[in-house]
Amino acid sequence: MSGPVTREDGAHEVFADLPPSPAVWCSGLHKRYKRRTAVDGVSFTVERGEVLGLLGPNGAGKTSVIKMLLGLVRADAGEVLLLGRRAADPNARARVGYLPELFRYQPWLSAAEVLALHVRLAGATVPEQERRDCLALVGLADRAGDRVGGFSKGMQQRLGLAVALVARPELVILDEPTSALDPLGRADVRDLLLSLKARGVAVLLNSHLIGEVERVCDRVVILDKGRVAASGTLPELLGQRELRLRLDAVGPEAEARLAAAGRLTRSGEGYAVALPAELDDAVVPDLVADLVRLGVRVHAVEPGRISLEERLLDILRTGPGAGGIRSEERSDEAGLRRLPGGLSERSERSQLSPGEEQR
Ligand SMILES: Nc1ncnc2c1ncn2[C@@H]1O[C@H](COP(=O)(O)OP(=O)(O)OP(=O)(O)O)[C@@H](O)[C@H]1O
């Protein structure tokens, strides 16, 4: 016969049923350096296994936000939870990998020694073979014994990535991880990020390389002047796709078929059909097949969508208003108002439902 369920056992069962807490949850972060406001009410979440891109112009506050998440800069206001724990909790910190924007490793150590040192600092145990594999993952397998002082900038950045990854983190925060890398190195990092994501590791990526962000990120938060100017998934941020067609012999029936696929605009032989953001793979081939069947001569079919770079420039120049992009300022305020002082970690989480705060 099983014994009586203690309060602790009961609590354990209740919490075991809860979905995992977000990898990052922050609400209402503020930071001033003397009279300059660097971060002005920033809130967002990074879910487990998600790659979140942090974008914004120079001085927007991206690095300040990252440093506040990690406790490297003290926030003037706001709350941070990492992996469901207070950011200062050593148990949370040990499970976070971080590549700073600017860093220098001890030039007299070898790459292997730098990794061993950081494993010790994280309080982790990582066998030597796994540390070697980590160096191989960033393309430094044959430089393990070389002193870091002789490394190129790109090689130091690769080592920085290995340091961020070596202690098997559940959350990786990368501040400009590819700024010194050649195109091949950037492609390697993209693959690396996708493999982390496939393993359920959450990634917060700060990068000015927008094409990179567009390729790997599930969601993007755009900062401007210390505030969240916009955030969302790529389809949310980029809006509708467009299909541009060059056609002739288009009869009324074919025109009706085009209009059925999406809002239709025409100039001469050129037709543009606005398609929904989330598109079934069969929509375009089916449309072309139907047009051909209706006697239309199809000269060209081109997919078109505004790029993230165009959208970012648009937001920074004109504000987030156009295109149905959410500004999170309102939820920041809500987050702050709803944060009662002195609550326990768990009760804060359950009151705030961090995952839902942004939805
Ligand atoms: N230690 C500091 N002392 C004083 N001001 C600072 C400090 N760190 C950052 N700032 C200021 O805070 C603002 C935000 O800087 P931050 O480095 O967070 O921006 P960023 O978005 O990461 O910029 P970049 O893309 O250029 O790296 C800037 O105006 C910067 O001058």
Automatic annotation (TrEMBL):
Region (Disordered): 322-359
GO molecular function, one term: ATP hydrolysis activity
Spans traversing the lipid bilayer: none
Residues of the ABC transporter domain: 24-250
Keyword Isomerase: no
Domain of life (superkingdom): Bacteria
Compositionally biased residues, Basic and acidic residues: 326-336
SMART domains, A to Z: AAA
InterPro entries registered for this protein in UniProt: AAA+_ATPase, ABC_transporter-like_ATP-bd, ABC_transporter-like_CS, P-loop_NTPase
Keywords: ATP-binding, Nucleotide-binding, Transport
Keyword Nucleotide-binding: yes
Family indicated by similarity: Belongs to the ABC transporter superfamily.
Protein's recorded name: ABC transporter ATP-binding protein
Lineage: Bacteria, Bacillati, Actinomycetota, Actinomycetes, Micromonosporales
